[in-house]
Amino acid sequence: MKNYESTVKKDTRSGFGQGLLELVQQKDNVVAMCADLTGSLKMTAFQDAFPDRFYQVGISEANMMGIAAGMTIGGKIPFTGTFANFSTSRVYDQVRQSIAYSDKNVKICASHAGLTLGEDGATHQVLEDIGMMRMLPHMTVVVPCDYNQTRLATLAIAEIDGPVYLRFGRPKWDIFTPAEDADFQIGKVQHMVEGSDVSIFACGHMVWLALQAVEELSAAGIQAEVINVHTIKPLDEAGILDSVRKTGAVVTAEEHMRNGGLGDAVAQVLGRHLPVPHEYVAVNDSFGESGKPLELLEKYGLSTASIVAAAKQAVARNG
Asked: Does the reported pTM lie above 0.90?
């Protein structure tokens, strides 16, 4: 069993900021814009280094999406930056009509997603965004798991010709993937740990928690396979089915509502091709609340213990 260790913690939004800075140095047609949250999105270095390619639109998220769509017509690759809630719920009409419908080459970069936004509370803790964005035709949806992978994802999405939703978070989180990871590829699942009894499919912050669950499950005689599904759309159906054919039981873990997210995406694949016991680790039809990130994950059933319990239940259902 491969062991993943973390010696440092760093927020995934900083991975986005670093990737964006590298990207603008590589591609002359990359531009960025932000809705009055430049510091929070870690876009300050980009702004300072290339002020003529950075646009501060103010608290005007809908206008930002329209501006971004228009800039693609001239060959630019715009990266928009604001909180995940403001990148989706507040601007869904503009994203649908001006970006997705028209298949515009806009990269919607969404920070502070999920419960781990923490103290800002339910109005900012969007838990529906993966579902909203994966339903849009033409939209690619990427949810990287740590600082290094968020940096790599930021670089990678610039190579996709079409709209992309890149989701990342606020808190400092364990870094456990390599800085240069040849195994990372948009549209392909990433096998983290090999197992034979249950497949744990996770995305974002939940990948690290899934890895922590492996040792406890092993002590209980359950060999868990952990797979990082960093690309929710297009979904690597072949990679998912290869794992499930081996294990016969599934857990999905995501910092998102049960409805519409990674769990439902995997369930649709299983329903069509390989029905097996499937347990969800996700928020159960509820808004969040203000609190410390780890305490909120615990309260809403998104902890390592929750993954362990779900895996045991899935294995038990598999007989």
From this structure: yes
Q: How far apart are CA 142 and CA 165, in angstroms?
A: 6
Provide the sign of the torsion angle of the four alpha carbons 123, 56, 43, 142, taken in this order. Answer: positive
CB 107 within 8 A of CB 119: no
**Residue 2 has what pLDDT?**
57
**9-174 topology per CATH:** Rossmann fold (3.40.50)
* CATH, domain 190-317, list 1.10.260.40, 3.30.1330.30, 3.40.50.720, 3.40.50.920: 3.40.50.920
Annotated catalytic residue, options 5, 61, 194, 225: 61
The reply to whether 61 belongs to the active site is: yes
Do 289 and 121 contact (CB within 8 A), yes or no? yes
DSSP symbols for 164-184 = EEEE--SSEEE--S-SS-TT-
pLDDT of residue 53: 97
Residue 29 CA to residue 52 CA, distance in Å, equals: 12
Which residues are CB-neighbours of 273 under 8 A, at least 6 positions away? 237, 241
pLDDT of 36-57, one tens digit each?
Answer: 999 999 999 999 999 999 999 9
